[in-house]
TrEMBL record:
The keyword Transferase applies. Belongs to the RNA polymerase beta chain family. SUPFAM superfamilies: beta and beta-prime subunits of DNA dependent RNA-polymerase (SSF64484). GO terms for molecular function: DNA binding; DNA-directed RNA polymerase activity; ribonucleoside binding. It comes from Amphora coffeiformis. It is an enzyme of class 2 (transferase). This is DNA-directed RNA polymerase. The lineage of its organism: Eukaryota, Sar, Stramenopiles, Ochrophyta, Bacillariophyta.
Length: 323
């Protein structure tokens, strides 16, 4: 029902229902047990920087993975997966509509489909990796000391701890510019660079530089060309010559990047006042027959008159009422 009730959609997903019918999976607990058995047995592995996790039943393992790993940005309260189910149903519906030729493909160069990896994100990943390494080393040293049968003196954590692990790791990464984090499968060079102080404009241009992950040797015009969606966010003129042309861009002088931690409650209340209905109160048929409204990557609700909603929000933004 969340995917759709059209005959072509039902025929497209009918084959996916054969295996559950053959295995007689009819309840949520049976489905969780089936998923839990398919997940790799990680109960004996070290996680979270070296802390041991107790073995779990397959149902609990599957429930935890569905809550914290699959679409981890969608919140789950008291293992209520309705919001996550609506999100997955919307994804499957769009994929099937594109496959059936009823919806165009998303533009990979559209700037709304991109995200910027800022310095704060990179530093947080580096600190998390170093802190987990620090915790793992501390646990190993504590196990070696406390496992001795004839322990003459009390365990002193200050003598076991290595105070320079995090400091040296961050200094080395920032000095060399190499972000090598095996835990997150990240291996990048040139993350940090010496700031150019030749002039005020050169320093400003270097601090607002955006590097694309696209390979510079490939002769593809799509990622290099100007996109209308970049208007007001990226400078249309400041880009280097040669193979990096169009791939290295700069933020506009008045551009401002918001993070996921910014307060979105006023924007959500404003959208509710403009007629956005809560998606939790609607059935699958009602969701698919209206227009879905997203806020920071989450489904906030649905609206039956999207043009009026967009017009009102744009008017408020241009009058300075919405940031």
């Amino acid at each position: 029902q969340l995917i759709g009730s059209e005959p072509e959609l039902i025929n497209a997903i009918a084959l996916s229902m054969e295996e559950p019918n053959r295995l007689k999976i009819q309840t949520q607990m049976q489905a969780l047990r089936y998923i839990g058995q398919k997940i790799r047995n990680r109960t004996s592995s070290l996680i979270g920087g070296g802390f041991y996790r107790r073995p779990q039943a397959p149902e609990d393992e599957a429930r935890e993975v569905l809550a914290n790993v699959v679409l981890s940005h969608v919140p789950v309260e008291n293992f209520d997966f309705r919001e996550k189910a609506i999100y997955i149903g919307h994804i499957v519906r769009r994929v099937l509509l594109v496959h059936l030729g009823k919806m165009p493909l998303d533009d990979k160069d559209y700037y709304g489909n991109k995200r910027l990896e800022l310095a704060g994100n990179l530093l947080s990943l580096l600190f998390e990796d170093l802190f987990k390494t620090f915790s793992k080393d501390l646990k190993r040293q504590a196990d070696l000391v406390l496992s001795k049968p004839n322990l003459a003196q009390a365990f002193d954590v200050t003598k076991t701890i290595r105070p320079d692990t995090i400091t040296n790791g961050m200094i080395n990464a920032i000095a060399t510019g190499n972000w090598v984090l095996k835990r997150f499968r990240m291996d990048r060079a040139g993350v940090t660079q010496v700031l150019s102080r030749l002039s005020y404009m050169s320093a400003l241009g270097m601090m607002t530089r955006i590097n694309s992950q696209f390979e510079k040797t490939r002769k593809v015009s799509g990622p290099r060309s100007l996109q209308p969606s970049q208007w007001g966010m990226l400078c249309p003129a400041d880009t280097p010559e040669g193979e990096a042309c169009g791939l290295v861009k700069n933020l506009a002088l008045l551009a401002h990047i918001t993070t996921g931690e910014d307060n979105i409650a006023p924007v959500e209340r404003l959208c509710r006042d403009l007629g956005v209905e809560d998606v939790k109160r609607l059935t699958g048929h009602e969701i698919n027959s209206t227009f879905i409204v997203f806020l920071n990557g989450l489904i906030m609700g649905v609206h039956s008159r999207p043009r009026e909603l967009v017009k009102e929000l744009r008017t408020m933004r241009r009058n300075g009422l919405v940031g």
